[in-house]
Amino acid sequence: MAVGTARPRTGLTMPAAHLVKRSLTVAGHATSIALEAPFWAVLDRMAASRRTSLAALVAVIDAGRGAAPLTSSLRLAALAHALHDRDLPGETP
C-alpha cells in the first residue's frame, strides 16, 4: 500500500463526500451550513418528526452545543437520531 493511502478495514467503500450548503437564520443571524446530503436528510426527518422547521431544530442544537462547532454538533445529533431513532438527550419532541 502506498504511503498516504488507507484502505477501510470493513471492506465497505465509502462514496465521495459532497457538501451541500444551506442558508438558515440561526439566533437571528443568517448563516450558511455545509453538510453531506445524508446528514441533511436525517436532520430534515428530525425536524418533521418534531413538527418544526429545520431552522428551529438547528437553533435548538446550536443553543446546546457549547464550544463545539455547529457542523459537528449537527452531524452528531443526526447520527444519534439515526442510530437510536430518538431526540437529543433531555428533550421531548
Count up the helices.
3
Low-confidence stretches: none
* Share of residues in helices: 40-55%
What kind of assembly state do the chains in view correspond to? single chain
Q: What does this protein structure show overall?
A:
The model has no long low-confidence stretch (mean pLDDT 84). The protein has a domain at 39-88. It has helices spanning 37-49, 54-63, 70-84; strands at 19-26, 29-36. The protein has a two-stranded antiparallel ribbon with strand order 1-2. By secondary structure, the chain is an alpha+beta fold. The longest helix is centred in the last third of the chain and has 15 residues, at 70-84.
Ordered list of secondary-structure elements with their pairings:
Elements: E1 19-26, E2 29-36, H1 37-49, H2 54-63, H3 70-84
Antiparallel strand pairs: 1-2
Protein name: Putative DNA-binding ribbon-helix-helix protein
Keywords: DNA-binding
Organism: Endobacter medicaginis
Compact description:
This protein has a domain at 39-88.
Which key features would you list for this structure?
single chain, 93 residues, alpha+beta, two-stranded antiparallel sheet, 2 strands, 17% strand
